[in-house]
Amino acid sequence: MDLFWGAASAFGTLGVVTLLEVQLRDAQPYVRLTYTLQNTVQDSRRQLEEEIKKDDVDYIDAIMFSKTSTVVCSGQFAANVPPGGAVTRFTRTRDPWFYVHVRRMIKRLTTAPNATTVTLFRYDRGGFWVALYSFRYFLVPFSRITRFVLDPFMYTRTMYRALHQSGLADFYMVQDVGVPYDRMDEFVDWLETTLNIYPLWLCPLLLARNSPNAEHGLHSGFAKLDCRTSEGRLMNFGIWGPLPSGLSDQKAFVHANRLLEHKVQELGGKKWLYAHAYYTEKEFWAHYDRKSYDRVRAKYGAEWLPTVYDKVKVTGKTDTNASGLFAWLLSLFWAIWPMRGLYGVLMAVLGGDYLMGRSVTKQ
Predict the structure, then answer these.
(1) Is there a domain that residue 102 lies in?
(2) Which of 99, 227, 250, 254 has a CB 3.0–4.6 Å from the CB of 232, allowing a cystine?
(3) What does the pLDDT look like over 258-307, one tens digit per residue?
(4) What span, in angstroms and rounded, lies between the C-alpha atoms of 233 and 227?
């Protein structure tokens, strides 16, 4: 079990996984999804906590459109569609994005919760709502027709490739962080004042470890928490979007990410390491449990591998093939709109990831 817990967020720095035994959970073909509109951060938090305690709730998350408009989505597995009911799908080309579907429901939710029967997969098309920003970047109208025409490119894998190949990842905040429940209000206020990025995705996370030998790895401190209370949980915030216009250059972008890292640490939260990480090495290991992490690395002879900090840190970006006048001309070229975006789309097409979405849309 020490290797199991130690591998969490280790990014291959304990070795290469070659064999897994996975215990699956039975699923049903449908989910009965209930949508509730909450008008304050406090009420949103309260409902999320209440839904977690219900034994019959299988899914829970929320979309925060603003501090005064959060739609909480609570789901239960369903084997059948209710008599006279219909299934709302989100995977076919003609289907709405889930984000668009929820946004349209807000006015109806002002009077009472609403429930629909949906298929399992909700967020892949449109990448939650991140694909919306590609329409804005290319000055393309955001409509049912344009979403239909561009659907092959509107899947998370394809957009992720295009984003990073284009270099536009250096100008869009893409971070997931978790903060304690009782600091949510403060964090939302800070996000609005500092970054003003909406929507936000909310997802309760259980981090407490109550199994034997769980005191290993980067997050071992959570083993001491009580998983039956909110003290054993964090509220994940998906913060994905362009920065305010005043923070549009590379230096300001790094500064904004640094501010976010410091705020999350100040609130006693955690940042998920799939995204850009700008910690200094000292800051990183003050935030994550190096002692437990090093102990499991030593036990399994992995000390010769790079550390997780070595793998996730963002270093200064340089182009070793460009220098002098050519480098200057290249920087001017990339500054011309929409060259970066077009290059990212080209790389996504050449990568072929956009073809993978076709098999999903048949569901």
Answers:
(1) yes
(2) 227
(3) 999 999 999 999 899 988 899 999 999 988 889 989 999 999 999 999 99
(4) 7
54-73 pLDDT, tens per residue? 999 999 999 999 999 999 99
**Residue 319: is its pLDDT beyond 60?**
no
Single-letter residue type at 188: V
The vertex-89 CA angle with 87 and 94, nearest 5°, equals: 125
Sign of dihedral through CA atoms 254, 257, 263, 266?
negative
Residues 133-178 have pLDDT tens digits of: 999 999 999 999 999 999 999 999 899 888 888 888 888 899 999 9
**Distances, alpha carbon 271 to alpha carbons 24, 90, 346, in Å:** 27, 29, 32
CA angle 1, 179, 60 (to 5 degrees): 75
What is the C-alpha to C-alpha distance for residues 232 and 75, in angstroms, rounded to an integer? 22
What is the domain count for the chain? 1
Domain membership of residue 107 (yes or no) is yes
321-327 CB contacts, 8 Å cutoff, 24+ apart: none
CA-only gyration radius of the chain, Å: 22
DSSP codes, 164-198: HHHTGGGTEEEEEEEE-GGGHHHHHHHHHHHT---
Question: Residue 82 falls within a domain, yes or no?
Answer: yes
Closest listed residue to residue 207, CA positions, set 179, 172, 242, 249: 179
Distance CA 101, CA 284 (A): 39
Alpha-carbon torsion angle 128, 129, 131, 135, nearest 10: 170
**104 lies in some domain:** yes
Residue 228: pLDDT above 50?
no
Any residues with CB less than 8 A from the CB of 237 and at least 6 apart, and which?
176, 177, 178, 179, 187, 191, 200, 201, 202
Q: Which domain holds residue 135?
A: 2-17+25-312
- C-alpha 29/C-alpha 83 separation (Å) is 16
pLDDT of residue 227: 46
> How crowded is the C-beta side of 233, counted as CA atoms within 13 Å?
20
- All residues at 6 or more sequence positions from 45 whose CB lies less than 8 Å from its CB, including other chains: 181, 184, 185, 235
Give the residue ranges of DSSP H helices in the chain. Answer: 2-6, 41-52, 98-109, 132-137, 144-149, 156-166, 184-194, 250-266, 281-287, 290-299, 308-312, 324-335, 339-351, 357-361
